[in-house]
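Morning F.,

Quick status update on the modeling queue. The single chain you submitted on Monday has been processed. Sequence for confirmation:
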Amino acid sequence: MKNKANSFIIQTNHLTRQDTMQPVDQHKLMLIDRDEFNRRIDHIKSQMAEPGIPALLISDNANKYYVTGRVFDGYVYIPLEGPVIFFIRRPVELEGDGVVYIRKPEDIASSIGLNVPEAIGLELDVLPYSTATRLKNIFPESELKNASGVMRRARAVKTPAQIDMIRHSGIKHVHVYSRIQHIFQSGMTDMELQVEIERVVLVSSESVATLWSFTWAMCLSATMPTHLPPMISQWEVRDWTRRCQSEHVAHQ
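Structure tokens below.
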């Protein structure tokens, strides 16, 4: 068992070092490749057909990120039949197929023209009432339908590319988790431990996203006492770490 664990850590370190950040074209709207984009749109459209939603207007940042790989101020219009249209307010330099710049949401109607859908799906579970009302007024003749479930079900089905990203993220997490027990010192408060974890992550050549390190640091904060007793054992720290790892896996 020990040899297997050591070989896994070696493999983890090797994969993490090779996983370097690639430069991003800031002017490109689509930050995922075209094949991956088509797979995700197909997932969404397959969920739109059953509840009878002929068109979907996405405004939630998480869903825009799912479709394009980036967050922007605007909307994604997905008709069941026809091309996807990206209505963008900001940033103004984004380029790509289907990009239409607008000043306000009401400009969407003139861009769609005569292809007004019989019903329009909005993410009513997450939209403020005022925003939902304003967007519905763009389509006065269209029936309003809640499309929040459509996006949840579509995003629940992971593509091979997403599964690969989850796998690499897990490898990075394991690497960082394995170092926590070595940076702990007797008498540390939970805040001091969090700061030290952040430091290790930021200075490491195999660093992971700070947001994720903050997430499991906060998990440690929730599971550990505010002031660690001086005689606390490393086995107890490992137990807390394992509990946070289990929480992270459960929410993937």
